[in-house]
Write a structure and sequence with these properties.
The protein is mainly beta. 0% of the residues lie in helices and 61% in strands. The protein is built from no helices and 11 strands. The strands form 2 sheets. Strands 2, 4, 5, 6, 9, 10 and 11 form a 7-stranded mixed sheet that branches. Strand 7 and strand 8 form a beta hairpin. It is elongated and about 50 Å long. The relative contact order is 0.33.
Length: 121
């Protein structure tokens, strides 16, 4: 059993900031890539930011320079610092992690429950 629990969403005015957190727990041997996705109303899910086990990062063009992804391997956690938020950032944000479970040689993708981010103008 592996669970990803997210927190930090909420309502913020345009130009404000939020910090999302996601912690993985359960029967974990190791975690490879971790990332944040979002799904806005009427839109498909899109990758927002990704961080590899080695610390390399990738960002969607729409958030470059505003969002920062980081991870804490001692806590099995990934974070998304969101600055200069815009109304178009309004979406449900989901964390994702590639997890190798104890006793397994394979990695699987796990998802958080989603947290709502609403940016008002």
């Amino acid at each position: 059993q592996v669970q990803l629990v997210e927190s930090g969403g909420g309502l913020v005015q345009a130009g404000g900031s939020l910090r999302l957190s996601c912690a993985a727990s359960g029967s974990i041997f190791s975690i490879n890539d971790m990332g944040w996705y979002r799904q806005a109303p009427g839109k498909q899910r899109e990758l927002v930011a990704l961080i590899t086990s080695g610390g390399s990062t990738n960002y969607a063009d729409s958030v470059k320079g505003r969002f920062t992804i980081s991870r804490d391997n001692t806590r099995n956690a990934v974070y998304l610092q969101m600055n200069s938020l815009k109304p178009v950032d309004t979406a449900v944000y989901y964390c994702n992690a590639g997890v190798r479970r104890r006793g397994s040689f394979n990695t699987y993708a796990y998802w958080g429950q989603g947290t709502q981010v609403t940016v008002s103008s």
